[in-house]
């Protein structure tokens, strides 16, 4: 879910996110007025503020203070949630866009500082965490020129290799390689799978799920212990709205936390509190190179949502933060934290580190079942509300899937369904099988039932 | 809207419900092609099912229908009286209207309500802002301008409906909020960070702890379908046997004081969504119902207003605070999130208490 520049670059300027009311910001602007006249950074009161956008609000921090502020948000998210600890090996999901570019830079700086501390320490008790970078090449799903993607990959290689040591391993993996274990033509299989979907939004969402599976696969095969995503506030705000629109209100809170360990390798989102504009600003201030990748802008529901959020953000500069904050008040799931380390091999220093940050499990593990497609937790069946108004979809009852995936990804027709399921990559098939509903025989029965009544529905 | 254009294109297809008559329209909610007769039948049956499943009414209850004269409440009045008769709900139905005092808007729409009174034979009660608060909306807008006037109107109407309902001695008020309205409210509550309202805005019955509960029989009913009912009814006059529909007239003008851009964005967005995915509206409502909101989320404690006795979480209810602002010539008092207003009012109360009403002195002064 690394950030696409195309969805996140709402124009406007960066600002502090606590403020909501316009009159408040006005008074602040007045207060600041004096500073601007003196042309000093509001924080350090010594350097000149940088002008990096439109409007007077921007020129408040000097370059260093701005950067420190942003890095501070990242660092705080990382330490408070124990996202990265010394023995970890983290895989940075890198799309080339501004968010993941800043993420890579920050993770790199953190590693660089850890290395310096390590070199200076006597007992070498805390090792330096390892960093890898993964780029998922999705060129097979769109019709962009191969030179374009080759150029992008070339740029990414140079970005990663130009970072100061410790060196970072780079994985450039085509998205279709999630099928590689099946020993078939991966590209063909991916094409077949995507062609089976009629819904544009469903296609986009399925690609996002496949991307996550690819990242998980790389991480798992190469011994990584965390997958780090560059999802910024703006991106998450869009996700909040689109999940709401798709009827995923129940599982929404799982997706927007700093930590998400429902995956084999826990996924962390350290840039959750950083709006896209700030990340864009930092990229231009620090001359961080952004790689254009041929991921087109969203269409369908996702496209509508991102333009809606963009309009809102232009009308009120803290709207995205408010949206994320609202969703942040929803109750997270038990897997929204780093699982506790039970292994006695873990160095005691690390365990101390954990304890110091109060990372204790609360033991409230409930048995959640998950959607086979998007891995979102499923609400325990509650038939009250949807009865009258949603057209029943008995065809898909044999796959444990959320209502959203049933609608926009799984085929409605049971015979198509039988062809569709084997096209899915392994992890999804496994999840579908482990789903608590249905074995093969009941599957057949339900198809039979459905076929009888099916004729009436055709117009 | 497209409603009258579409049937033309569909000529020849058979209705997917009865398979006998020619399909006359595409149901906005499901995109099924359906004949008029089946559409009306399905439309009413769905609402009947919602009423049954959610146990909205009990036999013998007195129910007030919040009637604005707009399409939603007009159709609601029609459907409820029809269902009440057909399925023997055993309800006593009333029409309850609030007269905000908006010239050229409300006075016209009230005429519609008065006609509905005659058509459905439902007793009508009108409560006016002027009687309750001493101010019409026209006067309020003259004083405070077009900004924030909806705050006054909304707060006053909520209370006026309750007061009217109390006068009618009804057990419940049914309002014409439709699925689009509820979806819009879910989004707005996310956009403005109001988690408490987000958790209750999708409930089909609200205020059960209060004096008079409210319910929304149209919770799952699409605005477009309601619109089609009224529209169909008008054009049906000549060709349909559904004679009752020809009398279904409603008033259709936007409030002249409500050019609300922010709400407009959300409304527009929902219409766009509906265009590419009709079920999005129901999905938003479903999300709203499913959000994991901790029950411990602080809900304001309910008390009663010290001034008027209406339910209030503060010392004074919002209407009294706003009214106080109006009467003192400080209309900004009730607006915005700074509680200064209510704490302001509290100080005033204390002063007032001391000077005016020694006998009814509240222990409020110990309240810090």
UniProtKB/TrEMBL annotation, chain A:
Domain of life assignment: Eukaryota
Keywords: Cytoplasm, tRNA processing
CC per GO annotation: cytosol
Pathway assigned in UniProt: tRNA modification; 5-methoxycarbonylmethyl-2-thiouridine-tRNA biosynthesis
GO BP terms, alphabetized: protein urmylation; tRNA wobble position uridine thiolation
Stretches that traverse the bilayer: none
Residue stretches of biased makeup (Basic residues): 350-359
Record's subcellular location: Cytoplasm
Protein family per UniProt: Belongs to the CTU2/NCS2 family.
The protein, known as: Cytoplasmic tRNA 2-thiolation protein 2
TrEMBL record, chain B:
A biological process term (GO) from this entry: tRNA wobble position uridine thiolation
Record-given protein name: Cytoplasmic tRNA 2-thiolation protein 1
Entry's EC annotation: 2.7.7.-
SUPFAM superfamilies: Adenine nucleotide alpha hydrolases-like
Pfam families: ATP_bind_3, zn-ribbon_14
Catalytic class of the enzyme: transferase
HAMAP family assigned to the protein according to its UniProt record, in alphabetical order: CTU1
Protein family per UniProt: Belongs to the TtcA family. CTU1/NCS6/ATPBD3 subfamily.
A single Gene Ontology CC term: mitochondrion
Record's keyword terms, sorted: ATP-binding, Cytoplasm, Nucleotide-binding, RNA-binding, Transferase, tRNA processing, tRNA-binding
Gene name linked to the record: NCS6
One of the record's GO molecular function terms: ATP binding
Record field: compositional bias (Basic and acidic residues): 344-359
């Amino acid at each position: 879910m690394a950030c696409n520049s195309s969805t996140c670059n709402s124009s406007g300027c960066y600002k502090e996110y606590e403020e909501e009311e316009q009159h408040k910001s006005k008074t602040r602007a007045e207060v600041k007025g004096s500073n601007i006249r003196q042309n000093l950074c509001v924080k350090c009161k010594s350097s000149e503020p940088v002008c990096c956008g439109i409007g007077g609000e921007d020129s408040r921090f000097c370059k260093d203070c701005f950067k420190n502020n942003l890095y501070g948000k990242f660092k705080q998210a990382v330490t408070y949630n124990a996202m990265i600890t010394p023995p970890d090996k983290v895989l940075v999901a890198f799309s080339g866009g501004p968010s993941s570019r800043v993420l890579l830079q920050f993770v790199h700086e953190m590693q660089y500082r850890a290395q310096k501390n390590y070199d200076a320490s006597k007992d070498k008790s805390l090792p330096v965490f390892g960093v890898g970078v993964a780029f998922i090449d999705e060129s097979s799903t769109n019709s962009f020129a191969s030179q374009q993607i080759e150029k992008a990959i070339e740029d990414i290689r140079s970005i990663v290799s130009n970072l100061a040591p410790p060196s970072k391993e780079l994985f450039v993996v085509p998205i279709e390689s999630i099928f590689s274990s099946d020993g078939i033509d991966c590209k063909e299989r991916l094409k077949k799978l995507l062609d089976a979907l009629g819904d544009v939004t469903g296609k986009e969402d399925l690609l996002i799920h496949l991307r996550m599976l690819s990242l998980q696969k790389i991480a798992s095969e190469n011994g990584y212990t965390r997958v780090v995503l560059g999802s910024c506030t703006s991106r998450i705000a869009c996700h909040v709205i689109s999940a709401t629109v798709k009827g995923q209100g129940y599982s929404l809170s799982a997706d927007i936390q700093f930590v998400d360990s429902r995956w084999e390798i826990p996924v962390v989102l350290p840039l959750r509190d950083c709006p896209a504009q700030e990340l864009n600003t930092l990229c231009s201030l620090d001359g961080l190179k952004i790689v254009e990748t041929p991921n087109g802008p969203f269409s369908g529901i996702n496209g509508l949502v991102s333009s809606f959020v963009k309009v809102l953000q232009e009308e009120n500069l803290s709207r995205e933060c408010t949206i994320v904050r609202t969703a942040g008040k929803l109750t997270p799931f038990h897997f929204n934290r780093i699982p506790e380390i039970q292994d006695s091999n873990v160095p005691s220093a690390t365990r101390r580190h954990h304890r110091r940050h109060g990372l204790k499990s609360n033991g409230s593990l409930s048995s959640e079942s998950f959607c086979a497609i998007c891995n979102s937790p499923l609400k325990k069946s509650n038939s009250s509300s949807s009865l009258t108004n949603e057209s029943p979809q008995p065809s898909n009852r044999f796959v444990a899937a959320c209502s959203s995936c049933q609608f926009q990804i799984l085929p409605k027709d049971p015979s198509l369904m039988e062809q569709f399921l084997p096209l899915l990559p392994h992890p999804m098939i496994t999840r579908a099988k482990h789903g608590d509903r249905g074995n093969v025989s009941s599957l057949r029965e339900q198809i039979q039932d459905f076929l009888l009544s099916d004729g009436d529905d055709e117009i | 809207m497209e409603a009258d254009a579409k049937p033309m294109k569909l000529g020849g297809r058979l209705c997917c419900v009865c398979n006998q008559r020619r399909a006359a329209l595409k149901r906005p909610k499901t995109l099924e092609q359906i004949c008029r007769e089946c559409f009306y039948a399905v439309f009413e049956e769905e609402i009947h099912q919602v009423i049954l499943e959610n146990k909205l009414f009990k036999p013998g209850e007195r129910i007030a229908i919040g009637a604005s004269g707009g399409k939603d409440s007009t159709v609601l009045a029609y459907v409820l009286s029809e269902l009440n008769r057909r399925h023997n709900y055993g309800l006593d139905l009333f029409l309850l209207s609030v007269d905000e005092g908006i010239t050229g808007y409300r006075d016209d729409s009230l005429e519609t309500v008065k006609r509905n009174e005659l058509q459905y034979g439902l007793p009508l009660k009108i409560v006016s802002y002027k009687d309750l608060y001493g101010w019409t909306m026209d006067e309020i807008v003259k004083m405070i301008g077009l900004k924030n006037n909806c705050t006054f109107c909304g707060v006053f109407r909520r209370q006026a409906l309750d007061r009217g309902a109390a006068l009618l001695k009804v057990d419940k008020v049914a309002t014409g909020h439709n699925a689009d309205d509820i979806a819009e409210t879910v989004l707005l509550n996310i956009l403005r960070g109001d988690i408490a309202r987000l958790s209750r805005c999708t409930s089909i019955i609200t205020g059960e702890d209060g004096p008079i509960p409210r319910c929304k029989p149209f919770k799952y009913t699409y605005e477009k379908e309601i619109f089609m009912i009224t529209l169909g009814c008008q054009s049906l006059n000549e060709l349909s046997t559904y004679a009752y529909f020809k009398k279904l007239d409603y008033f259709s003008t936007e409030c002249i004081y409500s050019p609300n851009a922010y709400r407009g964005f959300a409304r527009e967005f929902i219409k766009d969504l509906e265009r590419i995915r009709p079920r999005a509206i129901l999905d938003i409502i479903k999300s709203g119902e499913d959000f994991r909101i901790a029950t411990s989320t602080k809900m304001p404690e309910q008390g009663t207003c010290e001034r008027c006795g209406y339910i209030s979480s503060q010392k004074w209810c919002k209407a009294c605070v706003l009214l106080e602002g109006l009467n003192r010539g400080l209309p900004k008092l009730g607006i915005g999130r700074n509680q200064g207003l209510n704490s302001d009012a509290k100080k005033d109360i204390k002063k007032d208490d001391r000077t005016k009403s020694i006998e009814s002195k509240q222990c409020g002064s110990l309240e810090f």
